[in-house]
Amino acid sequence: MLEKVKDWSDEFYESFKPIAMGFVNEAEKCLQCGKCTGQCPAAAVTPSYNPRKIIRDLVFGNVKRVLSSVELWQCFFCSGCYSVCPMDINFPFFVFMFRLAAMNEGYGWEDVKQLEGYAEKSYLKDGITVSTFERNPYVLDTVGDIGKIRAEAGLPPERKVSARGVAEINMISDLSGMTAFMKQIGGVELLDCKSCTDEQAKRCKRKPMPSKVGKVKTHYRFYNYGEPGGKKHAQAG
Amino acid sequence: MAENFMEEYGQETSREAAERTLSYFRELFSLEMPLGRMMKMMPGMVKFAMHGKDTRVDLLKFVPQMMPMMKAAVSGKREG
Amino acid sequence: MAKKTLIIGGGIAGITAAQKIAQNGGTALLIEKEGHLGGNFAKLTYTFPVLADAKGIVTREIKTAEELAGIEILPRTTLESCRGEAGNFTVELGTPSGRRTEQVAAIVVAAGFHYMEPTAYTEYAYGRSAKVVTSLEFEKMAAEGRLPQGPARVVFVHCVGSRDKAKGYRYCSKICCSYSAKHAIMLKQANPEAKAYVFYIDIRALGKGYEEFIREAMEKYNVRYIRGRVAKVIESGDKLLVRAEDSLIGNPVEVEADLVVLASAMEPPQGSRALAGILGIATDEYGFFREAEANVRPCHSSKEGIFLAGSCTQPMEIAAAVAMGGLAASEALILSR
Amino acid sequence: MPRLDKVAQIPKPEQIFFFKSCVASNKYPGIEACGTESLRLLGVEPVESEEQTCCGGFVTFANVAAPTASMPAVARNLSLAEEKNLDTCVVCNGCWTFLNEFGHFMNHNEEVKASVNMMLNMMGRSYEGSGQVFHIAELFYRLKDDIAKKVKRPLAGVRAATHYGCHYLGGGKYSAIDDAQMPSYMEELIELMGGTVVPYTANRECCGTGFTQIINGKDLSLEHTQRKLDSVREADPDLLIVQCPYCHSQLDRVQQQLNFRQGTDYQTPVLHIAQLVGMALGVPEGKLAFAAHISGRKRLEEVWDRVGR
């Protein structure tokens, strides 16, 4: 599709650099050499995901395309791109910062919604993010009670963070606004594939269609850098 | 129905999104402590103080350090 | 009688400078730290963009220099110290037979370059797999007839050590694009059954006939050019898996290769900073000698009476090194009259 | 080759702050039990603290928390070690990168450090940035001479493959003790304890967890893990040695999930390097906690028999 080239905004990138606590830097040094994509585990299994293209859009100021893309949420956070980058561009941090920005614009809350439980139910309640809770029946049958295994290994049956420790991270969370942030996410159930209308199903390429996540009005994301991939779509197409 | 983001969000330029993003980050990563932000922190501190005796003691130790910041925040607001 | 000119480095630039000085009535003292003249040129099999016999050309030039009366060649000799000023330098040379002091009017530095050893590039399995070689090793293999036989796939990787802030140098090494094309053609000529893949970022063919040379590799020899820097080379059985992105399509690609050739960058000669310290001239951030003025005085070093020639100033091709050798010689002659 | 100059910089401590990992504690307790026990056998006393929480990496990179929230959490956890005047030892790549990167960032940004410290002062703590964070595998490599001397159960006849994990290598581009692209210290450790190293093609590939992709993009995650497992199966090692509990969990559990979904038969036991070292040093069977492992339990028993319980 013909796309009108807009004047890119030098100021955006320049003013973005210092603000993001210095994490995001040096994207303008990108050579577009493609070494990042070449070794990317996500790109190897997703046709449209391409770190190089996202950096290019970022530097040229096509922020809207990055923010509204599904691809932004497909990064594996493996840091492989950073480890091979000839210009030391820390791309995973770009993704991290841009996911925050995308959420501010109303994209991607349905992804975060699925992870929010780890923070609210585990991290803030127990001080530990991954709990002993197990959903997989096979694992439950094979492993049984982790507490018993822990006791056999000479550890207390349950790893506990002291009440003081939990109170401290709760205060950090409250004071830095993380708790309020999570409250925005919680609450409203997502629509899933079974309950969505035909109209919604037509537009939905992969993700369940959210109407609203928590108190946030969400927007639809698109595959902005290519076609959706995966075995499922190969069959559907 | 929109097939891609250009159709769906075509009216809105990247510049507007970029400006919103910038002001969001500016606020998020600001190290300044204006009164409004300090007031937002109060409930969390109260919650922490209510947790137990030891937390209350630690928080009280912090009060002398907090007073000048409070003063600066309040006066800053008056000037601005 | 004309005063002597000291020439440091017996590569093609140094040989040319010595020839021109002698042919114009001067006397040249050519020192070389190796046992023989020829430098990096002598390690090549073919030249580009015209595939000419490199060894033959170097031998001819060395012979010309050796036959000229005004040239004294000192192999296995290094510069120990240097004092004085333009027109009257006192240099101390370390020769195999002991120290030797000379009075010279001018000094031409033609210290050449060094092919970077890509040991830092462990993602390319260099040093771990015998099937990953540098372009210099590829030249050697070609000269000895050890190129892969039959339907082998050979991958050429551009920009190894150049255009790389993290592990190499930020500059463009200038000649790698062309010599990789030369290698691909050499491979196809020796073994038409072989498949050659070249991974590039940009093709920089800056020279007369270079663009046509690379187009010839693509068109006549069917060398496959893929735009993307190779991300990693993985050993898999007796094959190598080369992973990269075809960035014109935007998809990761994988090539199962039998040989991977790394086009390693031209880096400053080893010990260039020490040599610069002895001579009292300036180097740039990488260790190349700095010219006084890049455009119209390319062969003047930061010190009067010391001239620069060849690839010790920047990555350059043979023709440019020869031209610069001649220019340095004529500058030196002015001082030695 | 490990960079020996960096290895030499790691002190040989008498005590170290043992940083517990969520996954290691709650899914594979053997990592925690073996980590502390083998350090003790090597003459390093692990010091634990009940007040230590999760490093905060997961919630941060799941975008549930902004760095403004996780920075003080990192500083708080590091300050626990600083109070005791100790360096920190972690068993998880995620903790390692997260504590290291954010710690490094705070140490080089006085303004941020001051603002973080303000929050810590409220709870009677402060962060200086004096301690260092080491991965337990780095410590093992540092103490490899002691390990060689103290091997009780030599791993003779055990064929082991390695998996380093992205967050150690990628995050440690400049701070890891080994080359980020072609590390080899785990191989050295395995050979030192008498085992055989099995090379395989996808050695340096990501395990496929993709941080949150195992939850949000399960298809992608499983597809990538399957690539890795296929390559592992081709080489057919007795054990797959990892150094990150998260990779451990992915590689162990996804084998079963793929077997269930696709009828494949992946059965490779996955072990953390702390468990392997513990096994060689003669840590009692209960502490290895192999009961928590899911895939390749039969094979693990065979290895046990070969090594001699």
From TrEMBL, chain A:
<protein>
    <submittedName>
        <fullName>4Fe-4S ferredoxin iron-sulfur binding domain-containing protein</fullName>
    </submittedName>
</protein>
<feature type="domain" description="4Fe-4S ferredoxin-type">
    <location>
        <begin position="20"/>
        <end position="50"/>
    </location>
</feature>
<dbReference type="GO" id="GO:0046872">
    <property type="term" value="F:metal ion binding"/>
</dbReference>
<keyword id="KW-0479">Metal-binding</keyword>
<dbReference type="GO" id="GO:0051536">
    <property type="term" value="F:iron-sulfur cluster binding"/>
</dbReference>
<dbReference type="GO" id="GO:0005886">
    <property type="term" value="C:plasma membrane"/>
</dbReference>
<dbReference type="InterPro" id="IPR017896">
    <property type="entry name" value="4Fe4S_Fe-S-bd"/>
</dbReference>
<dbReference type="InterPro" id="IPR009051">
    <property type="entry name" value="Helical_ferredxn"/>
</dbReference>
<dbReference type="InterPro" id="IPR051460">
    <property type="entry name" value="HdrC_iron-sulfur_subunit"/>
</dbReference>
<dbReference type="Pfam" id="PF13187">
    <property type="entry name" value="Fer4_9"/>
</dbReference>
<dbReference type="InterPro" id="IPR017900">
    <property type="entry name" value="4Fe4S_Fe_S_CS"/>
</dbReference>
<keyword id="KW-0408">Iron</keyword>
From TrEMBL, chain B:
<protein>
    <submittedName>
        <fullName>Uncharacterized protein</fullName>
    </submittedName>
</protein>
UniProtKB/TrEMBL annotation, chain C:
<protein>
    <submittedName>
        <fullName>CoB--CoM heterodisulfide reductase iron-sulfur subunit A</fullName>
        <ecNumber>1.-.-.-</ecNumber>
    </submittedName>
</protein>
<dbReference type="GO" id="GO:0046872">
    <property type="term" value="F:metal ion binding"/>
</dbReference>
<keyword id="KW-0004">4Fe-4S</keyword>
<dbReference type="GO" id="GO:0051539">
    <property type="term" value="F:4 iron, 4 sulfur cluster binding"/>
</dbReference>
<feature type="domain" description="FAD/NAD(P)-binding">
    <location>
        <begin position="204"/>
        <end position="325"/>
    </location>
</feature>
<dbReference type="Pfam" id="PF07992">
    <property type="entry name" value="Pyr_redox_2"/>
</dbReference>
<keyword id="KW-0408">Iron</keyword>
<dbReference type="InterPro" id="IPR039650">
    <property type="entry name" value="HdrA-like"/>
</dbReference>
<keyword id="KW-0560">Oxidoreductase</keyword>
<keyword id="KW-0479">Metal-binding</keyword>
<dbReference type="InterPro" id="IPR036188">
    <property type="entry name" value="FAD/NAD-bd_sf"/>
</dbReference>
<feature type="domain" description="FAD/NAD(P)-binding">
    <location>
        <begin position="4"/>
        <end position="121"/>
    </location>
</feature>
From TrEMBL, chain D:
<protein>
    <submittedName>
        <fullName>CoB--CoM heterodisulfide reductase subunit B</fullName>
    </submittedName>
</protein>
<feature type="domain" description="Cysteine-rich">
    <location>
        <begin position="161"/>
        <end position="252"/>
    </location>
</feature>
<dbReference type="InterPro" id="IPR004017">
    <property type="entry name" value="Cys_rich_dom"/>
</dbReference>
<keyword id="KW-0560">Oxidoreductase</keyword>
<feature type="domain" description="Cysteine-rich">
    <location>
        <begin position="18"/>
        <end position="99"/>
    </location>
</feature>
<dbReference type="InterPro" id="IPR051278">
    <property type="entry name" value="HdrB/HdrD_reductase"/>
</dbReference>
<dbReference type="GO" id="GO:0016491">
    <property type="term" value="F:oxidoreductase activity"/>
</dbReference>
<dbReference type="Pfam" id="PF02754">
    <property type="entry name" value="CCG"/>
</dbReference>
